[in-house]
Write a structure and sequence with these properties.
With 450 residues, the protein is α/β, with parallel strands linked by helices. Helix content is 47%, strand content 13%. The protein contains 19 helices and ten strands. The strands form two sheets. Strands 1, 2, 3, 6, 7, 8, 9 and 10 form an eight-stranded mixed sheet that branches. β1, α2 and β2 form a beta-alpha-beta unit. The longest helix has 24 residues. It is globular, with a radius of gyration of 24 Å.
Length: 450
């Protein structure tokens, strides 16, 4: 290579580096120095990680941050009251994807799309492409009931922060003891439950949620349901919970619950499911992957260190299709400090904070960024959680919010859970689901959906 060519290559590299440095330095983190914002937060391990590092954000930006934290059983009521009153008190709040369908249509949430596209307001290092696209699209909606999430005309109502996929979590020590393997589909899961009932008579085979609530439908149940290619509506507002595939899956699920689930299934929320696994009462759970993660941490439960993860089973031969819950951060449309709030949203969903939030004592799992999952320190930490990393990498391509977005989600999905109770108490599945579909059709028609 000639001296001239070497000089040209050197100058190109030099100019590229100068451009990169100038682009990064052009973003002024101190632009809103002295501004104050207030956060509305749910009590959660993710929140713990945030609060531990919140001073770093103020030091970096000069933005003063105050916050209120409420336990989950009252948190969403607090959000609803605050937003519906159009109060500017809270600039940023935690939310889930399903709540977007309730808060965005009346204009309570700010569309974040323009902020994300603004070269002036968004740090080039924020790197949107590093965030799993199925997470962002699950929080983007065009406000048309029944329209799919993430369409080209959708607005971005929130940013993903930390999420959970739904998997099978099992006692590795018990499986090793009896030479058992995780099931590949729902029929195999029932056969495994029958074996475990005989092999471990002091325990019961599997815990799943069961209260008369939408929260019973969205974790394991809907993940297995998706594996059967069953849908909730087709198209909206026509309920399809009584389709042949939906009935087949629901029949198997309810057989599993009645024969091998907890005796008090109708009162089981996430807490009871996780606690029965952690206290050695259940051999398996089909629920949020992070629920087992918290039980498996050193000293967290009687079974810590003995849990393992596998993709949640669905139909024979089908790819896992887990539904997800996304703890997200939204901006109050009535906030008076929106630009400062956007700085906070960038920081708390950025690489630097998320790396700190997954390492060491903190448990912000599952992180939203590909680069964080590739972090050697985080991967090393997950070695103590058998199958967690491998299961995540297997299922993440098909992870998304599988519900049909519509403002009456909570009411209609709670009715779905109530129908599972009827089947549990002896009603024929086809009959119960036919009645559900007819009832929901009438409910949605009365609400103006045709």
């Amino acid at each position: 290579m000639t001296t001239k060519r070497i000089f040209i290559l050197f100058m190109i590299c030099f100019l590229v580096s100068i451009f990169a440095v100038s682009s990064a330095s052009a973003f002024d983190w101190k632009k809103h120095d002295g501004t104050s914002i207030k956060l509305l937060l749910n009590k959660h391990p993710y929140t713990n990680a945030l609060l531990a590092h919140l001073g770093e954000f103020t030091e970096k930006t000069g933005i003063n941050v105050t916050y209120d934290v409420f336990p989950e059983d009252e948190y969403f009521d607090k959000v609803t009251i605050s937003l519906s009153s159009k109060s500017p008190e809270y600039s940023v709040f935690m939310t889930g994807a399903y709540q977007v369908w309730q808060y965005a249509p009346p204009g309570y949430m700010e569309d974040l799309g323009p902020y994300m596209k603004s070269a002036e307001k968004t740090n080039p290092d924020w790197d949107q492409a590093d965030i799993y696209p199925n997470l962002l699209s699950s929080l983007a909606w065009n406000l048309k009931p029944g329209s799919p999430l993430g369409t080209p005309d959708a607005k971005q109502w929130a940013l993903p922060w930390g999420f959970e996929t739904n998997t099978l979590i099992y006692r590795k020590d018990i499986f090793d003891k009896h030479g058992l393997k995780p099931p590949k589909d729902l029929p195999e899961l029932l056969a495994l439950c029958e074996k475990l009932k005989k092999l471990e008579p002091e325990m019961y085979p599997i815990a799943v949620r069961g209260t008369r609530s939408w929260a019973t439908i969205h974790p394991g149940f809907l993940s297995a349901y998706n594996g059967y290619a069953a849908t909730d509506y087709g198209p909206f507002p026509r309920p399809t919970m009584n389709s042949p595939k939906a009935v087949e899956m629901t029949t198997l699920w309810m057989e599993m619950v009645k024969k091998y689930g907890p005796k008090a299934w109708t009162s089981y929320i996430w807490y009871e499911v996780g606690n029965d696994l952690g206290q050695g009462r259940a051999c398996m759970i089909y629920d949020a992957d992070i629920l087992g993660y918290f039980q498996n941490q050193p000293g967290a439960s009687k079974v810590s260190g003995n849990l393992a993860w596998a993709p949640g089973p669905g139909a024979p031969g089908a790819e896992p299709a887990p539904n997800m819950w996304i703890w997200s951060l939204g901006m109050n449309a009535n906030s008076e400090t929106k630009d400062a709030a956007w700085y906070f949203l960038q920081w708390t969903t950025g690489k630097d904070f998320l790396l700190k939030a997954v390492r060491g004592e903190f448990s912000l799992v599952d992180p939203i960024r590909k680069s964080v999952w590739a972090d050697p320190e985080f991967k090393k930490k997950l070695e103590e959680f058998t199958g967690y990393y491998e299961t995540f990498q297997t299922i993440i391509p098909n992870c998304k919010v599988y519900f049909t977005p519509q403002p009456m989600f909570f009411e209609t999905t709670t009715e779905w859970a109530a129908t599972l109770h009827e089947i549990y108490n002896g009603t024929d599945p086809q009959e119960a689901l036919d009645v559900l579909a007819e009832r929901l059709s009438k409910t949605l028609k009365r609400a103006g959906y045709k």
